[in-house]
Specification:
The structure is a homodimer.
Chain A (H helix, E strand, L loop, with lengths): L18 E6 L11 E16 L7 H12 L3 E9 L7 H19 L6 E6 L8 H14 L5 H7 L8 E9 L2 E10 L12 E6 L2 E2 L1 H14 L15 E6 L6 E2 L1 H24 L7 E9 L2 H13 L1 H8 L6 H9 L10 E4 L2 E5 L2 E2 L4 H7 L4 E7 L5 E8 L3 H8 L4
Parallel strand pairs in A: 3-4, 7-9, 8-10, 11-15
Antiparallel strand pairs in A: 1-2, 2-3, 2-9, 5-6, 6-7, 11-16, 12-13, 12-15, 13-14
Helix pairs in contact in A: 1-2, 2-3, 5-6
Chain lengths: 404, 404
């Protein structure tokens, strides 16, 4: 659970050997932007996935879980649409998600349960299956190992830019590639999963190891970000491993593989925050001096979701009192007299004393776009880091007008 | 714990017999708006109070708790300043809060512990005691039973309007008056208390009964509102009873007294929400069909604090899927197939089926300014109502620029 990770390179979900991707416009979005993505592995790939813990789970989440079980965790493809979440759509929605998988399976030439499904967009509106049906053959025809960028665009909703990342991990004399894409801009506070994230690797990884690696990495990356404290009905991260590099990941190779996977997932997760709805600043929130790791995370999440903290940072106001007020209400052990509050490296409160004379210096620091704030709770020795963005008037504008 | 309450009338914190109030400008606020308020009872009054449960408690909260204990719950006055919270100010802040009380006591002619203190404003800035010292005699000279409105203005920070309410309760042949004032606009999600609320009554009420009535009423009123999910370092509600009506409240009179107290507190609390930072709509959120009252409250609070719900309502977008998504992530028993979502009286989701064709009708309803949304969780028979406001770009503007 170390924080450092490997470095990432250009590349995306089709960068690992034996993967192809596509992204096309099927007409689900009224504005004709790309809205249908396909990821296909040339050979059966081991799959692991984490899903939303929201009790209102979208049809594609339910169907993907079923398919992972029925296929024994070996799949050939993932099909994703944006523009419609296919959530809270009853039996019709389940039928649509199943048909989306089976129509993809017919094109790829595999069993329906070897296809995973994901959707994102408005909740409670039926999936336009005629558009999916006519779009799928187009997407299949467009598949290519150079089409990752198109796929990354086709899964976007209010995202201002596509999120892609890849990493190369050297194991012995060989190289394993890990690449992925993600989307998400609002309704982001993953609890055990996240918005949509798709990662592929050409390593050969047995399902239990693949799942362990994914859960471990997601906890420090996708699950450590927040835009607005919301957890969607559709949150999903899927990881496919097709073995085409000829490298098998066992216990000896696990640490190197996880470092690469973490680098890719962290870059994708930070991309989601940087591209958060209305975001103008990326904020790293670190809570230290906590009585337990869980309390550190809880306080860091509370700060990262506080509208008063997020608006102050948006306005470049070094209103550090809001940080301490949130720590105080977070429901964790906290000793104000021993607490310490920092903005960047500037200490604004320590030993029960404010240093408001340093406010101008902190205000200057807050003009940047990549910021760090910290609260030491003075109650123990555990720490946690989460990433958030500022809250701008643009966030309100985007979400007040989403469907209009 | 009935929801209905008596009706309120014009009046405020000095309407009950034997109370006087004042509000003046002491120069704490740079803009010279009123910032120092005084409430004095002609005779010693029984006092009850609830305070923030934030672990970072402001100096005036600590001092008021001490004074309530030392005085045996019998006080003469309350002194309040706006423009500075006197929170996270260390020992200097404690000394300032104590001096604020003792200077008031010297004017009123009582023991220092018979004065309660409250402050509101920026956290982490020292209280300008010279201004308090020179302002207090002015406030004392201005005291009058017709000065409630001035006091209500002097406790405002970002509030767009003052909040006052009173109620008359007939008991036998006599009438008891209950009146109060409140302030609060941002950093509002009371947990066991609220922003600043001050209520006076000319009933005679023994301390245990007064405290029981206050706790019971605050739970359904001040503690059932939220503007932004924040809980301040200074939240306080104080209730003084001076007996000048000649009516004593015992068990027989308790229900009538509580109904009047609830009417006053509810009107003050809803005033806080209506005047929430950037608010343009008052939203009543009712969660029913919950497995327990605590789960009903938890889900209602989650909905009432959801930025996606609040922005959708701001934009008049009947995006009911966000209501169900929040209910799903609220950590309560919830059965999507049995759940029901309403906007006003329009059912948009029921029996696992969306009714998106009713969206235009719901959009029309959302053009109003006094709105209700409901989620039946389909998991039990308990319900809870909380009040919130919409989230506007103006909220961001206010909080990004608070100190600049």
């Amino acid at each position: 659970m170390t924080a450092q990770a490997g470095t990432t390179a250009a590349g995306g979900v089709a960068t690992a050997r034996g993967f192809r991707a596509a992204g096309i416009s099927a007409g689900i979005k009224a504005n004709r932007n790309p809205d249908l993505a396909l990821i296909v592995s040339d050979v059966p790939a081991t799959a692991a996935a984490v899903f939303t813990i929201n009790k209102a789970q979208a049809a594609p989440v339910v169907v993907s879980k079923e398919h992972l079980e029925k296929s024994g965790g070996v799949v050939r493809a993932i099909v994703v649409n944006s523009g419609c979440a296919n959530a809270c759509t009853g039996e019709a929605g389940m039928t649509a998600a199943r048909e989306m998988a089976s129509a993809t399976a017919a094109l790829v030439g595999c069993a329906p349960e070897q296809v995973l499904v994901a959707s994102t967009g408005v909740i409670g509106v039926g999936l336009p299956m005629d558009k999916i049906r006519s779009g799928l053959p187009q997407a299949f025809a467009a598949l290519g190992s150079n089409q990752g960028p198109q796929a990354a665009r086709a899964i976007m909703t209010t995202d201002p830019f596509p999120k892609e990342a890849s990493a190369a991990v050297t194991i012995g004399a060989k190289t394993v590639t890990i690449g992925g894409m993600a989307k998400g801009s609002g309704m982001i506070e993953p609890m055990m999963a996240t918005m949509l994230g798709f990662v592929t690797t050409d390593a050969a990884v047995a399902q239990p190891i693949l799942r362990r690696a994914l859960v471990e990495v997601v906890n420090d990356t996708f699950n450590a970000i927040t835009v607005d404290g919301e957890c969607s009905t559709n949150d999903t991260v899927m990881l496919l491993a097709n073995g085409q590099s000829g490298v098998t990941i066992g216990e000896a190779e696990y640490a190197a593989f996880v470092a690469g996977l973490r680098a890719v997932c962290l870059e994708l997760a930070l991309g989601i925050v940087r591209g958060g709805e209305g975001a103008t600043k990326l904020v790293t929130v670190t809570v230290s001096g906590a009585a337990s790791p869980a309390e550190a995370r809880k306080a860091a999440k509370a700060i990262a979701n506080s509208p008063l903290v997020k608006t102050a940072i948006h306005g470049g106001d070094p209103n550090w009192g809001r940080l301490i007020a949130v720590a105080g209400r977070a429901g964790v052990a906290f000793e104000p007299q021993r607490a310490k509050v920092t903005i960047g490296s500037i200490v604004l409160f320590e030993h029960g004393r404010p240093y408001d004379d340093r406010a101008p210096q902190a205000a200057e620091y807050l003009r940047g776009t990549d910021l760090a704030v910290g609260v030491d709770l003075g109650a123990g020795s555990d720490a946690s880091t989460v990433w958030t963005c500022d809250l701008s008037a643009e966030y309100v504008k985007i979400n007040a007008e989403y469907r209009t």
